[in-house]
Known about the structure:
The protein is an alpha+beta fold. It has helices spanning 21-27, 80-95, 111-119, 156-164, 199-203; strands at 3-8, 11-16, 52-55, 62-63, 74-76, 144-146, 170-173, 180-183, 209-211. The protein folds into two domains: 3-90, Roll (Ubiquitin-like (UB roll)), CATH 3.10.20; 96-216, Alpha-Beta Plaits (2-Layer Sandwich). 21% of the residues lie in helices and 16% in strands.
Amino acid sequence: MSKVTVIIDGREIKAPAGRKLLWVALENGIYIPNLCAVEEYARPPASCRLCFVQVEGREKPVTSCTLPAADGLAVQTRSPRVDRLVRTAFELLLSDHRLQCASCPANRACELQKIARERKLKLRYGRFPYLQREPAPDDSPQTFAFDPSRCVLCGRCIWADQEVAKIGAIGFSRRGINRSVTTFKDVALAESPCNECGLCVKACPVGALYFKKTAESK
Length: 218
Ligand code: SF4
Ligand code: SF4
């Protein structure tokens, strides 16, 4: 693949032509918040709305997970518009998230905590009050459990299950506010085709999927 030069926050960086800017930035030590990004996606869903950058010459920020590297492409990872979009997306995510970091299995290894730290965002309910839906957890598997009240709907577990493990035990169901990760026909994970390979747990960026044994925990 031919190389191009992109400019991120004023830094000239060589990158393979067409490589998505999010990965170019992360590989070069430039942090851009993200939750749903998976490098192998041919068509990234761009659903978490956190990886916006400001492209020189374009009015509106664009998602860096969908932005191909091209020669001379110049972006800023921060701008007032980018920061506003990221803050709103983050606050909306939190409004449907049970925030109890101290007792969460992902505490200190959680992407939400990292985003808050990197972007100086508050990890607490703000403009959008907590919805308090708190759907029931599923701890039917022997080795792991799923607590949907901590799920950020990033889809990484589904990618791991369907594209890496090739099992197809889980998927998204329903739309809008009721969108959730479920098994086919909503059966418990232990009654689904899940073989407990654990790839979905390792792919989860927060504490929604977690191993039961601390020795195996992330
Ligand atoms: S998933 Fe992250 S932000 Fe949410 S409670 Fe757990 S540690 Fe805190
Ligand atoms: S369970 Fe984890 S990996 Fe799966 S969609 Fe929710 S947050 Fe993402």
